[in-house]
């Protein structure tokens, strides 16, 4: 459960930072890397953690860059819809990160369990 809260907070932090330091499409690179890290570290429920990461990131980013004349409350449904798109992106990135973690972990376990040459003699 803690990883889910951390993932949402991490997404909100990256969304806020992205809103204040927009670098064009390069802003997407740390966001994508963050989604991979969330999946890599979330052993339990990586899909949920990634979805909340993506939603929080997108939603906070939209709030941070909004400069319209209409009330921000009137824009919340639109921001939530864009947050849902971010949730799908965060979900897919976190599943990729979990896949990488699962591919690396068996190799580490198999090399750690093999005795070295000096132990065989």
How would you describe the overall organization of this protein?
The N and C termini lie far apart (47 Å). This protein is elongated. The chain has one domain. With 121 residues, the protein is mostly helical. The model has no long low-confidence stretch (mean pLDDT 86). The protein has five helices and no strands. The chain is 82% helix and 0% strand.
Q: Which sheet architecture does the biggest sheet show? A: none
Class from helix and strand fractions:
mainly alpha
Oligomeric grouping of the chains: single chain
Question: Helical stretch count?
Answer: 5
Give Rg in angstroms. Answer: 19 Å
Can you give keywords for this protein?
single chain, 5 helices, mainly alpha, 121 residues, elongated
Write the layout of secondary structure elements.
Layout: H1 2-20, H2 28-41, H3 46-65, H4 72-113, H5 117-120
Helix pairs in contact: 1-2, 1-3, 2-3, 2-4, 3-4
In short:
By secondary structure, this protein is an all-alpha fold. The protein contains five helices and no strands.
């Amino acid at each position: 459960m803690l990883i889910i809260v951390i993932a949402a907070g991490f997404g909100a932090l990256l969304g806020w930072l992205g809103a204040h330091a927009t670098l064009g499409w390069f802003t997407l690179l740390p966001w994508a890397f963050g989604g991979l890290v969330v999946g890599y570290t979330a052993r339990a429920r990586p899909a949920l953690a990634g979805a909340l990461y993506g939603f929080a990131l997108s939603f906070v980013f939209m709030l941070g860059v909004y400069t319209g004349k209409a009330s921000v409350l009137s824009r919340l449904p639109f921001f939530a819809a864009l947050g849902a798109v971010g949730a799908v992106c965060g979900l897919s990135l976190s599943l990729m990160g979990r896949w990488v973690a699962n591919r690396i972990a068996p190799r580490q376990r198999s090399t750690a369990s093999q005795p070295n040459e000096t132990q065989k003699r």
